[in-house]
Amino acid sequence: MNQCVCITLVVNTSLIPFRGFIQKSAQKLAIEGIGNVLAPHTIKIVVHGAHDAIDEFIDVLYTGCDGIRPASVAVEPFVKDRDYRGVFRIIS
Question: 47 and 77 in contact (C-beta within 8 Å)?
Fold first, then answer.
């Protein structure tokens, strides 16, 4: 079963290492969606995919990258409002 969620990720450092980390993690898990950089330390991510893949993606985000954990991760249900065409993109 597929699900769609909106994730707001806040970090205390630069988003630059997280952008690549998020992109690679989504591709590895075959998740589609979009990430929008809202502020220098905040990114809003909308992802759609298999329930298990979404759960694993959220776990990966909580773990962080390069030893840097996010300051906060907020996850909420989301209604898929567009066709993501099977890919994950981050828009600055």
Answer: no
